[in-house]
């Protein structure tokens, strides 16, 4: 895009050595409980470097809990998660330097302007001087927010708030983005723009782990993980999941029916809603 450079991710693609051939994220036999409730049960999956891996499934399936564990916010009860070869528990500080985590309710300061919000996050990460100015221009430009730097965050549309949240997550230039339903409730045009940004990040080597309730967004992922009632039912490409069905929604509903005869009525969003 004119006026600024595309963000680049150090180390991929083109990284040398055996490490570059390994999955960037490994989740092995991970479980998590909240009291008597088992939120995640024995989940294992791998996310390749420079790929978009999407988590889809029924409400309460454990997607957010799994992402929180990957983001070092929760400690797994059993199993192990590694990111770039580092254990999220034993190497928590080093892992946090490599990830950008955007929860469903990202903590923007509504009374601060767009510029003040991104300045706040750069202060947290100790980004100073000329590098600070360059990154601000880069990530606000990348998110199409440069014309709105003086607007309070509370006055932004839902889609613009999500793009500002993404810009704030990116300022320390992580290697992995962890996004928990980042476009939920956002209008279709803003959702399209947000996913175009993610596509450009992927093209430049970013690894992305994202949950979504919109199955048109699931189609944009390199691989999907289908979760239901704390378990991972399947991991495959979108094309493989819907191979015998008219669309991804039908395929996922049928797969959940096969696993859970009591539940066939979960509402999945196909992308037509606002």
Folded structure, characterized:
The protein is of the alpha/beta class and 274 residues long. It is globular. Helix 3 (114-124) runs parallel beside helix 5 (158-170) and helix 5 packs parallel to helix 6 (188-203). It contains nine helices and ten strands. The chain has a six-stranded mixed beta sheet with strand order 6-7-8-3-9-10, with helices on both faces. The protein has helices spanning 63-70, 92-98, 114-124, 129-142, 158-170, 188-203, 215-218, 238-241, 248-259; strands at residues 25-34, 37-47, 52-57, 78-83, 86-87, 99-102, 176-180, 207-211, 223-228, 231-236. A hairpin with a 2-residue loop joins strand 4 (78-83) and strand 5 (86-87). Residues 11-16 have low confidence and may be disordered. It starts with 24 loop residues before the first strand and ends in a 15-residue tail after the last helix.
Helices and strands, with pairings:
Blueprint: E1 25-34, E2 37-47, E3 52-57, H1 63-70, E4 78-83, E5 86-87, H2 92-98, E6 99-102, H3 114-124, H4 129-142, H5 158-170, E7 176-180, H6 188-203, E8 207-211, H7 215-218, E9 223-228, E10 231-236, H8 238-241, H9 248-259
Helix pairs in contact: 3-5, 5-6
* Strand order in space, largest sheet: 6-7-8-3-9-10
- Low-confidence stretches at least 5 residues in length (pLDDT < 50)? 11-16
The assigned structural class equals alpha/beta
**Sequence of secondary-structure elements:** EEEHEEHEHHHEHEHEEHH
Main sheet record: 6 strands, mixed
Tell me the distance between the termini.
27 Å
Number of strands: 10
